[in-house]
Amino acid sequence: MWVLGIETAGDRGSVALWHESGEVYEFSFPARRRHAERLAPAVQGLLAQSGVTGSELGLIAVDVGPGSFTGVRIGVAFAKAMAQSLGLPLVGVRQSEAVGLPVAQWYGERVAVLIHDRRDLLYFAWAFPGRVTREESLPFGEVLEKLKGVGDSLCLVGTGAMRLREGLARELSRAYILGDAWAYPSAATVARLGHQRFLRGGEFDPKALEPNYVQPPLAKEGSYGQKM
Known about the structure:
The protein folds into 2 domains: 119 residues, 2-Layer Sandwich (Nucleotidyltransferase, domain 5); 88 residues, ATPase, nucleotide binding domain (Nucleotidyltransferase, domain 5). 38% of the residues lie in helices and 25% in strands. Strands 6, 7, 8, 9, 10 and 11 form a 6-stranded mixed beta sheet that branches. Strands 3-2-1-4-5 form a 5-stranded mixed beta sheet, sandwiched between helices. The longest helix is centred in the middle third of the chain and has 18 residues.
């Protein structure tokens, strides 16, 4: 089965074709505030390069957030429209799952996922091998208190961990803080996790899929102003 993965929850977008045999095609693109104009051409180019046609797709998987309100909305709307037009099931994957599960798998213990929010908050979740807790939207100070209470063995990942690396390292001297290469979700991972969820069964009607915003959107998105 070919699975189309769509990732637009942050400043870096990507689309991927993932096959259960292990074959993968993936395009990445800078997407900050330009998700709408870049997503459709990226999918078209991916299909053209791979030689895979829409009729060969068996599933679409999309990152449902949390993350950029606009990016998540555009990705989910595009995925729903494409799934309905092709008569395909649609699976949602949370950004915390796409970022946290691959790290938790090789780390072998729980991992703190910190996703940057465009306000003085972080989306926070724990990733374990095989599962991720629901996200909380918390100020930096509250996240720090949670992290300080878990002992020395601590791995942090996500755009929030990357952006606040200096302050986190100062307060959590023994923490393993992963950088840029691990901070952003991959559309190929979204596709692979979506396929796993699809095989477990459930309801995958495109009309029923909703974004995972966690927090309501702001009228105007500001810069990250957390002081440390």
